[in-house]
Amino acid sequence: MLNEILKEKRKEFDLTQQNVADHLNVTRQTVSSWEVGKSFPDISTLIKISDFYQLSLDYMLKGDVNLMKKIKKDTNDLKKYQNIKEILKIICYGLLIIAFFYLAGHAIGKGWAYYTQ
């Protein structure tokens, strides 16, 4: 599991959680929560950890079922939010088109009324 790997490597390098936190620009509490399996680092931080401890991402990730589930869930959530974003864009463009035609029709109607009097 990732939490065990992180704790083992930190101790192997004879570092404190604060040392690791300072290097990764996170809090000591964040490092602690990773090491007890309470939370997981994000992808960019995982890459920093991989470089820092000289570990492959493959080694760090593949054995941790919970982390793989989280990554899959995050990916699905991201896709869902991207779809929602596209739908909202279409709705906004549609409203803009409706507003344009409404205002254009209103202006044409006023012009027509002026000339027919």
Automatic annotation (TrEMBL):
Pfam families in the record: HTH_3
SUPFAM superfamilies in the cross-refs: lambda repressor-like DNA-binding domains (SSF47413)
Presence of the UniProt keyword Transferase in the record: no
Keyword DNA-binding part of the UniProt annotation: yes
Regions that span the bilayer: 87-108
Alphabetical list of InterPro entries matching this protein: Cro/C1-type_HTH, Lambda_DNA-bd_dom_sf
Record-annotated HTH cro/C1-type domain positions: 6-60
Keyword terms of this UniProt record: DNA-binding, Membrane, Transmembrane, Transmembrane helix
Protein name listed in UniProt: Helix-turn-helix transcriptional regulator
Organism: Enterococcus eurekensis
